[in-house]
Every structure is written in structure tokens, then in C-alpha cells.
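task queued by scheduler; priority normal; single chain, no ligands, no partner chains; default sampling; output format set to C-alpha cells
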Amino acid sequence: MSMVLRDQSFPKMTHEEWTAAVNPKVQGTWNLHNACETAGLDLDFFLLFSSISGVIGQRGQANYAAANTFLDAFVQYRQALGLKASVVDIGAMVDYGYLAENPLLMERLTSQGFYCITIAQLLDALALVVKPYAPGDKQSASRTFVNDFQLVIGHRSLTSLADPANRVIWKEDRRMGFYFNSDSEKATITKDSSDQGVLVSFLKSVTADPGLLSSPDSPVFIARQIAAQLFRLLLKPADNEQDIDVSISLQDAGLDSLVAVEMRSWWKGTFGFDISVLEMLGMGSIAALGERAVRGLKESIGEASETRDDGGEKHDTEGYLKLKMP
């Protein structure tokens, strides 16, 4: 929905300033909803563009933050009615929009530590949040509430939250306590790297002898390594990788769209080829991911061999939809 800013500290904010920022999003959303219902339209999607301000707030923008929080809540309202709806809470954009047209404001935000996103990252987010399945799909009973049709992008900083130079507004938010704690766990990174030593060793052996990938044990081994990395990201490291049940579903394992972004980055760095977030989420089980990794490794090794034989150069011909989130 359209953006109208009437910045003012909340105690001094007038009713006109409040409604000027709130109405375009609130009344505009209701107008679209009512028009679609009156016309009896069966929509493929009902997509709202919100702002990260509704999640983290901004000083002097209580009205604008409230308007964006309404959009997030309205998606839940439509979902409860069995209607399609999704929302993207957009962070600071570097190459288009209000901030791109106001370089001084952009400079002020980046100097505080704000990370800025691009159009390409926004398009990738849209591909994730406009889900193909129907509203009302049941989630695992063990999960706390998660709005699967709301995606926040750009909620990160250029430096650690522990850095005194980092002045992002959410630094003092209690909800960020987890990230402060993660800084204190940097010592575990070395351990995590050693934990993956077995996988690194296996991949080196595969490069020398691709026939190892034909072993029926290889997909299971790789699946367990993938699961182990997933559990590390979820801060639930496996005590014994051999005990991991690779037949469990990705949902039960804890893989959602946000975690999949991190897993995709690890996947590409580890296996040397890419996998889209949508493909990863659609695999269904840990075992299926292991089998996908084996197929990709076979293809990568085969292409490398052909390149050496032909003396030519291979080019990346992947489709446009690539998630480039940090």
C-alpha cells in the first residue's frame, strides 16, 4: 500500500498527522478487500507490501509503524476467513524507492549499521511469500505461532550488535537477545567447522573417485550431514549424527523459508552448486535432500570433467529466480 509519512514524536502527534499516515494503508486495504468480496473474485493471491517499521518501529513514526502492523494483522484476518493473503515487510532498499531518492537519509541509516536490500532480493522474497498451497494449511502442533504468509526482509545489520558503532534501532529490543547471545558463541564456530570435517573429507574423496557417489550409503551419509547443519542453525545440534532419522519431514526437522535461506548459502559453499529455496522446501524429507545433493555432485563432477576434456569454459545458465539474500 502507498506510503505517507507524517513524522512526529507520539506525544506531539496530531490526529491529522496520525490519520494521514495510517489511512492509505488501513482504509486502502479494506477497500481492496471489500471490493474483491463484493465482486466474488477468486484471487490467486492477495499481496500486501508492508514495511519493517511495523516490526521494529522507527522513532517519530508511531503512525507509520501502526499502519504497517495493521497490514501484518490483516493477512491473519483474511487467512482466518479462508482467503488468500500474504505480506512482505520491506527493509531499507538501496536501488529503488524513497530511500534511494533521499541519499542523505540512506547515508544516515547505513552509518548506523542498517543493511540495505535490492530489487532482486525483493523479487525473491515475493516468490517465497506467495505460497502455492491453500490458506488454512495446518502447521505442526509443536511449533509456536508463525505467520507463514508474512516475510520480513532486511532485518540485519552491517556489523555485530555487540559493536559499539552499531546503532540500529532494534539493538536495544529484548527480542534481539538471541543475537547478542550468538555473538558469545563464536567460539563454537571452530567446533562447527571441525564437525563438518568428515563431510569435507568425503567430498575430497569424491572428487578423486566419483564412483563413491554410486554407493547406496552416500545419500544417507550426506543427508545426515545436511540434517546436522540444519540442527546447528536451529541451535539444536545432534549428539550423534548416526542417530539422525533422515526419513523425517523437513517441516518436522524445523526447516522453514527463513532457515532455508541460510541452508541454501551453506549448501552452495559446501557442495559447490546451487539449489533454490523453493526447491529445497519442496523436497519433503531430509533423505530427499541427500539424494538431491548426490545428483548435483554427479552432475558437477561430470561437467568439470567435460570442461577439462574439451578445454572449454562452462557458464552458469541457472534461471533468473535466485535467492541472493545475505
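post-processing summary
- The first strand starts at residue 47 and ends at 51.
- Residues 15-39 form the longest helix (25 residues).
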